[in-house]
Amino acid sequence: MPNEALYVRVCQQIFDSIIMSSEYAENSPLPSERFLCEKYHVSRSTVRQALEKLQDDGYIYTIRGNGSFIKPQVFEQNLTTFYSFTDELKNSNVIIQNEIMEYELIQLDMVLASRLGHDKKSYFHKLIRLRSAKDYPLMVETTYLPKSRFHKIDTSYLMNHGSLYSYLREKYDFHAERAVETFRPILPNANEKELLQISSNMPCILLERFSYEEGMINEYTQSTVRGDKYIFKVDLKNPHSR
User: Fold this and answer.
1) CA angle at 74 for the pair 68 and 88, rounded to the nearest 5°
2) Cα 101 vs. chain centroid, distance in angstroms?
């Protein structure tokens, strides 16, 4: 039991260096077993047990003859309930950062007016945000909000607090009764590739969300999500099974 408790403690300390403090970057090598032994004042067998647990839990991977490396983190998003990316990541102890790339007040063209069910030339807030976790970007998000429902958007608040839904709920008592989402694979355009820091052949996911309030679409968002960073999951239950 003492040995088990010791390797678990070392495992937790290495985990904190990977996840909590971001001491080690994704795909970077962990220090050698000898270095870790000296750092934590434990035997090599204890370090190996700790590394085995980290590998079993999906936080590192090993290349024979080259050592252990930090496994890139992939986020899983359950789609069975209404969700906010910011809130879901906070629940996983990941703080998301938001950078406002563009904000303007626009009039809808014929295409957007048709998609959103609003009159042509209605005024909408158009907000483009780069959303990142730790030191890497996750998605480019473009949101359209009707000015008739949301008179003013405080971009400085969104930079500091992050969650658009929390802001709309607190400021305007916005409560979406339902949302319709579609997903499809895409290749990023030049601007998205630069913002997301990925190569042009890295697949992304285009997520479109239409949020309804009293039967009206009062929020429309297009998110270009890095395909290597997100898994979207649905837990299906068969109503005819026993």
Assistant:
1) 135
2) 17
Q: Are 108 and 191 in contact (CB under 8 A)?
A: no
Report whether 182 contacts 208 (CB < 8 A): yes
Q: Dig out the tokens for 233 from the structure.
A: 């999951």
90 vs 187, residue with greater confidence:
187
- HSE toward the beta carbon, residue 93, CA cutoff 13 A: 8
CATH of the domain at 25: 1.10.10.10
Digit-coded pLDDT (tens) for 9-24 = 899 888 888 766 667 7
* Helix, strand, coil percentages in the chain from 3-state DSSP, rounded to 5: 30, 35, 35
Nearest to 162 by CA among 132, 197, 124, 195: 132
Residue 204 lies in a domain: yes
What is the extent of the structural domain holding 60?
A: 2-70
pTM given for the model:
0.70
CB 188 within 8 A of CB 196: yes
Write out pLDDT tens, residues 119-151. Answer: 988 999 999 999 888 668 889 999 999 999 999
> Which three-class secondary structure state does DSSP give residue 170?
helix
Token readout for 81 is 């309930």
